[in-house]
Amino acid sequence: MFEWLAANIGTIIVALIVIAVIAFVVFRMVKDKKEGKSSCGANCAHCACRGDCHNHR
After folding, report:
1. What is the spatial distance between Cα 44 and Cα 53, in angstroms, rounded to a whole number?
2. Rounded CA separation 39/49 (Å)
3. Taking a C-beta distance cutoff of 8 angstroms, is the pair 18, 5 a contact?
4. Per residue in 9-56, pLDDT tens?
5. Rounded distance, CA 50 to CA 43, Å?
6. Which three-class secondary structure state does DSSP give residue 49?
7. What Rg, from alpha-carbon coordinates, does the chain have?
8. Does pTM surpass 0.85?
9. DSSP class of residue 42?
């Protein structure tokens, strides 16, 4: 067990760092969504999704 751990410690550390970064990004996205923040730049004329996110009635 310890031999395998010692042989793969670099991979394990990198995997833990990647998992931590992904968890942080997901946490921030959820937090921003709850606070009503958006990644929308409000420049609908140049947006590929214009007319979909802001319903102008």
Report:
1. 9
2. 13
3. no
4. 999 999 999 999 999 999 999 998 888 776 666 667 777 776 676 555
5. 9
6. coil
7. 20
8. no
9. S
Nearest to 42 by CA among 33, 50, 34: 50
Amino acid at 42: A
Can you give the pLDDT at residue 23? 98
- CA pair distance 43, 8, nearest whole angstrom: 48
Determine the Cα–Cα distance for residues 15 and 27; give it in Å rounded to an integer. Answer: 18
The size of the chain, in residues, is: 57
Token output for 48? 């590929």
> In this structure, which amino acid lies at residue 2?
F
Q: Answer yes or no: are the C-beta atoms of 44 and 54 closer than 8 Å.
A: yes
